Amino acid sequence: MSVTETTPPPADPVVLITGAARRIGATLARRFHAEGYRVLLHYRHSHVDAIQLADQLNALRSDSARVLQADLTIEGGAEQLAAKALDQWHQLDLLINNASSFYPTPFGQVTHTQWHDLLGSNLAGPFFLAQALAPELIRRDGAIINLVDVHSQKPLKDFPTYSIAKAGTAMLTQVLAKELAPRVRVNGISPGPILPPEGAAQRDPAAQQQIVDSTLLGRCGSPDDIADTALFLVRQGYMTGQIVTVDGGKSLSA
């Protein structure tokens, strides 16, 4: 009696999304999960939100979402997250650098702590995470997507540190595209007004409306607009080193 050998089906792709517990990150997680990805949900402080999201996704498909905590602003934090990520399913196909601190730091009042936090979360963390995961992404012919910001090109008043950090993220996208070619594609998404800021960065309703009115489309976007663009960048196999602006035309306004 002969035994027929069968080839096991390919494993579902794996995506690591930083800052995945809430807002745009959570929308990215839900969308890629719906596309058949296994998702690694990174969080810094939002433990409850991350666990709830993972539970929701695992209820739809067993063992398809796992939660990883890390502080990307501390030395070794990115490398620890990379190791945790690879320990889960021993595979990584896509890295989405979404985690970001965002709050005002008026010039003349900027502290070293604020500088370290904003550049750590927006620039240093993504750099060292990409560096640590590069061998696996090369092995898998993977991809990286960085969340940039329209203020990487036009600085935001009273947010000099954040604007500088995001300008660095834009350059990081191009640098990684060159360094990791031809096996890994690296692109960015530069959102405009998508969600109202929270915490210290909150604006009064009149100021928020002024921002909305400055877009050519006269409205805010939604996290789904960012997820749509991320999926496009994954599927578009002949793009690398590019940053797609999703801002309703705000960057064209005066």
Question: What attributes does this structure have?
Answer:
254 residues; alpha/beta; Rossmann fold; 7-stranded parallel β-sheet; 7 helices; 7 strands; globular
How would you portray this structure in words?
The protein has 254 residues and is α/β, with parallel strands linked by helices. It has a single domain, classed as NAD(P)-binding Rossmann-like Domain (Rossmann fold, 3-Layer(aba) Sandwich), CATH 3.40.50.720. The protein has helices at residues 23-34, 47-60, 77-89, 112-139, 160-180, 205-213, 223-235; strands at residues 14-17, 38-43, 65-69, 94-97, 143-147, 185-191, 243-246. Strands 3-2-1-4-5-6-7 form a seven-stranded parallel β-sheet, with helices on both faces. α2 links the parallel β2 (38-43) and β3. α4 packs parallel to α5. The chain is globular, with a radius of gyration of 19 Å.
Give a brief rundown of this model:
With 254 residues, the protein is an alpha/beta fold. It contains seven helices and seven strands.
Topology (elements, then pairings):
Layout: E1 14-17, H1 23-34, E2 38-43, H2 47-60, E3 65-69, H3 77-89, E4 94-97, H4 112-139, E5 143-147, H5 160-180, E6 185-191, H6 205-213, H7 223-235, E7 243-246
Parallel strand pairs: 1-2, 1-4, 2-3, 4-5, 5-6, 6-7
Helix pairs in contact: 1-7, 3-4, 4-5
Sheet with most strands: strand arrangement: 3-2-1-4-5-6-7
| Category from helices, strands and their pairing | alpha/beta
Radius of gyration: 19 Å
Q: Topology as H/E string?
A: EHEHEHEHEHEHHE
Number of helices: 7
Strand content: 5-15%
Query: Span between N and C termini?
Result: 78 Å
